[in-house]
Specification:
This protein is α+β, with helices and mostly antiparallel strands. It contains 10 helices and 19 strands. It has 2 domains: about 190 residues, FAD/NAD(P)-binding domain; about 120 residues, Alpha-Beta Plaits (2-Layer Sandwich). Helix content is about 35%, strand content about 30%. Helix 1 packs parallel to helix 4.
Length: about 375
């Protein structure tokens, strides 16, 4: 059997893969990070960093640059047009980061990459893993150009269509939502409340409206069939039907737009021998609640620390514990995102009852605190 040349090979340089690499490198482990995409080719889907994620990134030198660049939003509100159904405040949470941080995924990845490079790391790209073979001593990954990388462990953080997950035969059960989703970063004016991430409920589907650095807003909406490139007129129609009515929003420019179809799936296991999964390779779900990237970064920190322990001589039972714990968190998040999506798209006839119920529970401080605890990720401490 070949001797490993690096401690860990990480496949996928998105937020989860970069975070895993940063954690391992800071602990002094040798790590190789490969990604199939050319530099800058990734799309900026996620835009929310929650308090617990910032707590996890703080010891690794990544929280401060994110906090300095992002927009601090202390409230999450659920609305039906101009009516506030439920307001979730983060200001009283027991954390150094009592807010939702709005920042593009591109900026989050840039901060993680900069830290990895400070620690002496580099991303090998474009490099696609074609085959994986493991034995008692390590894992051999063969790239599509024929090169081989030998590592003690391999982390698959290569997204929903994970080659790593498929190569080791881990199932990915679940299904796709009927609707497609549209994303757009826009410049707008009008009746947009300040200091909030807003989730608008509508019989036509949900729409999220959230501030971004530089005065832009992120729009996320469910539609039957999203256009490949949503334009100003398309986004304007969405907000005319679903957004504020007393002072309508005016969309001036679409700076970036995309579409995607969302699945709700969880890997059958996060570990197969010396191969482990993190991020979207392990779980995908509705963007309602903005949990996806945050859950993936949580996976990465936990996995990086577990691998460091095992490489230092601890029992590899720590890797089984990682797999079980993080999979349990994914089940909780998928369930919450499903509930939010179902509530948002409820039939028009049941809308008044839903609004009444949310209005009642929204006046209970304990309910608001519990929701803040869940949305912030602090319940995963």
């Amino acid at each position: 059997m070949l001797t490993p040349t690096v401690d860990v090979l990480v496949v996928g340089a998105g937020p989860a893969g970069l975070t895993t690499a940063v954690v391992l490198a800071q602990h002094g482990r040798s790590v190789t990070l490969v990604d199939a995409q050319a530099e800058g080719a990734n799309t900026s889907r996620a835009a929310v960093v929650h308090p617990r994620t910032l707590e996890l990134l703080e010891p690794y030198g990544v929280a401060a640059p994110l906090v300095a660049k992002g927009v601090h939003t202390p409230r999450f509100t659920i609305r039906d047009r101009d009516r506030v159904l439920l307001s979730v405040p983060f200001g009283q949470l027991p954390t150094a980061y009592p807010y939702t941080l709005m920042i593009s995924q591109a900026d989050t990845e840039a901060a993680l990459l900069a830290r990895f490079q400070q620690l002496g790391g580099m991303v090998l790209r474009p490099a696609r893993v074609a085959a994986i073979a493991q034995d008692d001593a390590g894992v051999t990954a063969t790239l599509d150009d024929g090169r081989e990388i030998r590592a003690g462990y391999l982390v698959g953080a290569d997204g929903m269509h994970s080659t790593v997950r498929e190569s080791v035969g881990i199932g990915f059960d679940g299904a796709a939502y009927a609707e497609s989703f549209v994303l757009a970063d826009v410049r707008l004016s009008g009746g947009v409340p300040q200091g909030e991430v807003m989730l608008y409920f509508s019989p036509a589907g949900l729409v999220v409206l959230a501030p971004l650095p530089g005065g832009s807003y992120r729009i996320v909406a469910t539609v039957d069939e999203a256009p490949a490139q949503p334009d100003t007129a398309f986004v304007q129609r969405l907000l005319d039907v679903r957004g504020p009515r007393a002072e309508p929003v005016v969309v001036h420019e679409v700076r970036w737009g995309s579409r995607f179809r969302v699945h709700h799936r969880i890997a059958d296991t996060y570990r197969r021998g010396r191969v482990l999964l993190a991020g979207d390779a392990a779980h995908v779900h509705s963007p309602a609640g903005g949990q996806g990237m945050n859950l993936g970064i949580g996976d990465a920190v936990a996995l990086g620390e577990a691998l460091d322990g095992v490489l230092g001589g601890a029992s590899d039972d720590e890797l089984d514990a990682y797999a079980a714990r993080q999979r349990g968190f994914a089940e909780q998040v998928v369930s919450m995102a499903d509930r939010l999506t179902t509530l948002a798209t409820i039939a028009a006839a049941r809308r008044p009852l839903r609004n009444l119920a949310l209005g009642v529970v929204g006046r209970v401080p304990a309910v608001r605190h519990r929701l803040a605890w869940q949305l912030s990720g602090l319940n995963r401490r």
